[in-house]
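Protein in question reproduced for absentees:

***
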Amino acid sequence: MDEERKGVIVKSASLEPLDITDEDMKKINQYTLSPLKSDDVFVFKAAIADTGNDDRNFEPFSDKSLENLKALYPGKTVISDHDRKSENQIARVYDTEIKNSDGLNQLVAKCYMVKTQSNGDLISEINGGIKKEVSTCCVPETVICSICGADNMKTYCPHYPGSEYKDADGNEKICTFLIDGVKEAYELSFVAVPAQPRAGTCKNFGVEKPKVEPPETDDTKNTEKKALEARLSVTDAFIFAETKKLENEKELKK
Protein backbone atom coordinates (compact mmCIF):
# COMPACT_ATOMS: atom_id res chain seq x y z
CA MET A 1 0.00 0.00 0.00
CA ASP A 2 1.41 3.34 -1.07
CA GLU A 3 -0.12 5.99 1.17
CA GLU A 4 3.11 7.74 2.15
CA ARG A 5 3.47 9.80 -1.02
CA LYS A 6 3.62 13.48 -0.20
CA GLY A 7 0.28 15.25 -0.45
CA VAL A 8 -1.86 12.14 -0.93
CA ILE A 9 -5.01 11.83 1.18
CA VAL A 10 -7.13 8.72 1.61
CA LYS A 11 -10.82 9.01 2.46
CA SER A 12 -13.49 6.46 3.26
CA ALA A 13 -16.62 6.05 1.15
CA SER A 14 -19.57 3.68 0.99
CA LEU A 15 -21.15 1.87 -1.93
CA GLU A 16 -24.52 0.49 -2.98
CA PRO A 17 -25.74 -1.66 -5.90
CA LEU A 18 -27.21 0.25 -8.83
CA ASP A 19 -29.79 -0.57 -11.50
CA ILE A 20 -28.43 -0.43 -15.06
CA THR A 21 -29.99 1.86 -17.66
CA ASP A 22 -29.35 2.23 -21.39
CA GLU A 23 -27.55 5.49 -20.65
CA ASP A 24 -25.26 3.63 -18.22
CA MET A 25 -24.36 1.10 -20.91
CA LYS A 26 -23.47 3.86 -23.38
CA LYS A 27 -21.05 5.37 -20.85
CA ILE A 28 -19.63 1.96 -19.88
CA ASN A 29 -18.96 1.01 -23.50
CA GLN A 30 -16.78 4.09 -23.89
CA TYR A 31 -14.18 2.17 -21.85
CA THR A 32 -14.53 -1.28 -23.46
CA LEU A 33 -12.83 -2.76 -26.53
CA SER A 34 -15.95 -4.75 -27.43
CA PRO A 35 -19.51 -3.58 -26.71
CA LEU A 36 -21.00 -5.08 -23.56
CA LYS A 37 -24.64 -5.78 -22.77
CA SER A 38 -26.40 -5.10 -19.47
CA ASP A 39 -26.32 -8.83 -18.63
CA ASP A 40 -22.51 -8.76 -18.90
CA VAL A 41 -21.90 -6.26 -16.14
CA PHE A 42 -22.61 -5.50 -12.51
CA VAL A 43 -22.75 -1.83 -11.52
CA PHE A 44 -22.63 -0.04 -8.18
CA LYS A 45 -22.30 3.52 -6.89
CA ALA A 46 -19.97 4.96 -4.28
CA ALA A 47 -20.47 8.13 -2.26
CA ILE A 48 -16.96 9.57 -2.55
CA ALA A 49 -17.09 12.96 -0.86
CA ASP A 50 -19.35 15.75 0.37
CA THR A 51 -19.13 19.29 1.70
CA GLY A 52 -20.10 18.41 5.28
CA ASN A 53 -18.01 19.94 8.06
CA ASP A 54 -18.51 16.81 10.20
CA ASP A 55 -15.88 14.89 8.23
CA ARG A 56 -14.26 12.35 10.58
CA ASN A 57 -10.82 13.27 9.26
CA PHE A 58 -11.59 16.96 9.91
CA GLU A 59 -10.65 17.52 6.26
CA PRO A 60 -13.86 18.63 4.51
CA PHE A 61 -14.11 19.14 0.75
CA SER A 62 -15.16 22.40 -0.85
CA ASP A 63 -17.57 22.61 -3.80
CA LYS A 64 -14.53 23.30 -6.00
CA SER A 65 -12.99 19.99 -4.87
CA LEU A 66 -16.16 18.08 -5.71
CA GLU A 67 -16.19 19.60 -9.20
CA ASN A 68 -12.53 18.65 -9.67
CA LEU A 69 -13.13 15.07 -8.50
CA LYS A 70 -16.21 14.82 -10.69
CA ALA A 71 -14.03 15.52 -13.72
CA LEU A 72 -11.05 13.42 -12.57
CA TYR A 73 -12.65 10.13 -11.52
CA PRO A 74 -14.34 8.85 -14.71
CA GLY A 75 -12.12 6.12 -16.17
CA LYS A 76 -10.20 5.52 -12.93
CA THR A 77 -9.75 1.95 -11.70
CA VAL A 78 -11.21 0.23 -8.63
CA ILE A 79 -8.72 -2.04 -6.84
CA SER A 80 -8.22 -3.95 -3.58
CA ASP A 81 -6.49 -2.46 -0.52
CA HIS A 82 -4.86 0.36 -2.53
CA ASP A 83 -2.39 -2.26 -3.82
CA ARG A 84 -1.61 -1.01 -7.33
CA LYS A 85 -1.20 -4.30 -9.19
CA SER A 86 -3.00 -5.22 -12.39
CA GLU A 87 -4.38 -8.42 -10.86
CA ASN A 88 -6.04 -6.35 -8.12
CA GLN A 89 -8.14 -4.36 -10.57
CA ILE A 90 -11.79 -5.15 -9.84
CA ALA A 91 -13.89 -2.51 -11.57
CA ARG A 92 -13.80 0.90 -13.24
CA VAL A 93 -15.50 4.27 -12.66
CA TYR A 94 -17.62 5.14 -15.69
CA ASP A 95 -19.56 8.19 -14.47
CA THR A 96 -19.80 10.74 -11.67
CA GLU A 97 -22.46 13.16 -10.48
CA ILE A 98 -22.97 15.73 -7.74
CA LYS A 99 -26.18 15.49 -5.74
CA ASN A 100 -27.64 17.65 -2.99
CA SER A 101 -28.66 15.72 0.11
CA ASP A 102 -29.83 17.35 3.36
CA GLY A 103 -28.30 20.65 2.33
CA LEU A 104 -24.91 19.11 1.46
CA ASN A 105 -23.41 18.55 -1.96
CA GLN A 106 -22.26 14.95 -2.43
CA LEU A 107 -20.12 13.40 -5.16
CA VAL A 108 -21.25 9.94 -6.32
CA ALA A 109 -19.16 7.69 -8.57
CA LYS A 110 -20.75 4.95 -10.67
CA CYS A 111 -18.62 1.86 -11.28
CA TYR A 112 -18.92 -1.30 -13.36
CA MET A 113 -17.34 -4.74 -13.34
CA VAL A 114 -17.61 -7.48 -15.94
CA LYS A 115 -19.35 -10.58 -14.54
CA THR A 116 -16.98 -13.54 -14.46
CA GLN A 117 -16.73 -16.83 -12.59
CA SER A 118 -13.95 -15.40 -10.41
CA ASN A 119 -15.87 -12.33 -9.16
CA GLY A 120 -19.25 -13.98 -8.55
CA ASP A 121 -18.64 -14.16 -4.80
CA LEU A 122 -17.58 -10.49 -4.68
CA ILE A 123 -20.77 -9.42 -6.47
CA SER A 124 -22.85 -11.48 -4.02
CA GLU A 125 -21.01 -9.87 -1.08
CA ILE A 126 -21.68 -6.37 -2.46
CA ASN A 127 -25.35 -7.18 -2.97
CA GLY A 128 -25.51 -8.68 0.52
CA GLY A 129 -23.95 -5.62 2.18
CA ILE A 130 -20.77 -7.45 3.25
CA LYS A 131 -18.41 -5.54 0.97
CA LYS A 132 -19.49 -1.91 1.22
CA GLU A 133 -16.41 0.02 2.40
CA VAL A 134 -14.14 1.70 -0.13
CA SER A 135 -11.50 4.41 0.06
CA THR A 136 -10.68 7.22 -2.33
CA CYS A 137 -7.15 8.43 -3.01
CA CYS A 138 -6.36 11.89 -4.34
CA VAL A 139 -3.94 14.83 -4.18
CA PRO A 140 -5.31 18.19 -2.98
CA GLU A 141 -4.48 21.44 -4.72
CA THR A 142 -4.98 23.60 -1.63
CA VAL A 143 -5.39 22.63 2.05
CA ILE A 144 -6.42 25.58 4.23
CA CYS A 145 -5.99 25.50 8.02
CA SER A 146 -9.02 26.96 9.83
CA ILE A 147 -6.82 28.26 12.66
CA CYS A 148 -4.13 30.24 10.85
CA GLY A 149 -5.25 30.19 7.20
CA ALA A 150 -2.02 28.58 5.96
CA ASP A 151 -2.10 26.52 2.77
CA ASN A 152 -0.44 23.29 3.89
CA MET A 153 0.32 22.31 0.30
CA LYS A 154 2.75 25.25 0.18
CA THR A 155 3.88 25.81 3.74
CA TYR A 156 3.91 23.99 7.06
CA CYS A 157 1.70 25.13 9.92
CA PRO A 158 1.89 23.69 13.45
CA HIS A 159 -1.83 22.85 13.69
CA TYR A 160 -3.42 19.42 13.33
CA PRO A 161 -6.95 18.63 12.09
CA GLY A 162 -9.22 17.60 14.97
CA SER A 163 -7.13 19.23 17.68
CA GLU A 164 -8.37 22.20 19.74
CA TYR A 165 -6.66 25.58 19.64
CA LYS A 166 -7.50 29.05 20.95
CA ASP A 167 -8.53 31.64 18.39
CA ALA A 168 -7.72 35.36 18.52
CA ASP A 169 -10.52 35.89 21.07
CA GLY A 170 -9.26 33.11 23.34
CA ASN A 171 -12.06 30.69 22.44
CA GLU A 172 -11.37 26.99 21.93
CA LYS A 173 -11.77 25.98 18.29
CA ILE A 174 -11.49 22.63 16.52
CA CYS A 175 -8.96 22.76 13.69
CA THR A 176 -10.12 21.66 10.24
CA PHE A 177 -8.20 21.50 6.97
CA LEU A 178 -10.41 22.57 4.06
CA ILE A 179 -9.50 20.72 0.86
CA ASP A 180 -10.15 23.51 -1.62
CA GLY A 181 -9.36 22.00 -5.01
CA VAL A 182 -8.00 18.61 -6.11
CA LYS A 183 -5.37 18.18 -8.84
CA GLU A 184 -5.18 14.38 -9.11
CA ALA A 185 -7.35 11.35 -8.35
CA TYR A 186 -5.75 7.91 -8.29
CA GLU A 187 -8.28 5.17 -7.59
CA LEU A 188 -11.10 3.77 -5.53
CA SER A 189 -10.23 0.76 -3.41
CA PHE A 190 -12.10 -1.94 -1.53
CA VAL A 191 -10.80 -2.06 2.05
CA ALA A 192 -11.69 -4.03 5.17
CA VAL A 193 -11.29 -0.94 7.39
CA PRO A 194 -11.58 2.48 5.72
CA ALA A 195 -8.59 4.71 6.34
CA GLN A 196 -9.49 7.26 9.01
CA PRO A 197 -6.27 8.81 10.38
CA ARG A 198 -6.77 10.10 13.91
CA ALA A 199 -6.36 13.81 14.42
CA GLY A 200 -2.93 14.98 15.52
CA THR A 201 -1.04 11.83 14.57
CA CYS A 202 0.37 12.79 11.18
CA LYS A 203 0.33 15.47 8.54
CA ASN A 204 1.52 14.56 5.05
CA PHE A 205 0.58 17.34 2.67
CA GLY A 206 2.76 19.55 0.49
CA VAL A 207 5.79 20.25 2.66
CA GLU A 208 7.79 18.63 5.41
CA LYS A 209 7.83 19.92 8.96
CA PRO A 210 10.77 22.33 9.28
CA LYS A 211 13.81 20.80 10.95
CA VAL A 212 15.04 22.96 13.82
CA GLU A 213 18.69 22.33 14.67
CA PRO A 214 19.49 22.63 18.40
CA PRO A 215 21.81 25.53 19.29
CA GLU A 216 25.48 24.61 19.66
CA THR A 217 26.68 24.86 23.26
CA ASP A 218 29.92 24.11 25.10
CA ASP A 219 28.38 20.79 26.20
CA THR A 220 27.63 19.74 22.62
CA LYS A 221 31.13 20.82 21.53
CA ASN A 222 32.71 18.77 24.32
CA THR A 223 30.53 15.76 23.44
CA GLU A 224 31.57 15.95 19.79
CA LYS A 225 35.24 16.36 20.80
CA LYS A 226 35.09 13.28 23.03
CA ALA A 227 33.39 11.25 20.29
CA LEU A 228 36.11 12.27 17.81
CA GLU A 229 38.87 11.41 20.29
CA ALA A 230 37.27 8.02 20.90
CA ARG A 231 37.12 7.27 17.16
CA LEU A 232 40.78 8.32 16.73
CA SER A 233 41.76 6.14 19.67
CA VAL A 234 40.08 3.12 18.09
CA THR A 235 41.80 3.89 14.76
CA ASP A 236 45.22 4.18 16.43
CA ALA A 237 44.66 0.88 18.21
CA PHE A 238 43.76 -0.83 14.93
CA ILE A 239 46.83 0.56 13.13
CA PHE A 240 49.08 -0.49 16.02
CA ALA A 241 47.63 -4.02 16.00
CA GLU A 242 48.07 -4.37 12.22
CA THR A 243 51.67 -3.11 12.43
CA LYS A 244 52.54 -5.64 15.15
CA LYS A 245 50.92 -8.39 13.09
CA LEU A 246 53.08 -7.59 10.05
CA GLU A 247 56.24 -7.45 12.21
CA ASN A 248 55.45 -10.85 13.69
CA GLU A 249 54.88 -12.35 10.23
CA LYS A 250 58.29 -11.02 9.07
CA GLU A 251 60.01 -12.54 12.13
CA LEU A 252 58.46 -15.93 11.41
CA LYS A 253 59.68 -15.87 7.81
CA LYS A 254 63.32 -15.27 8.85
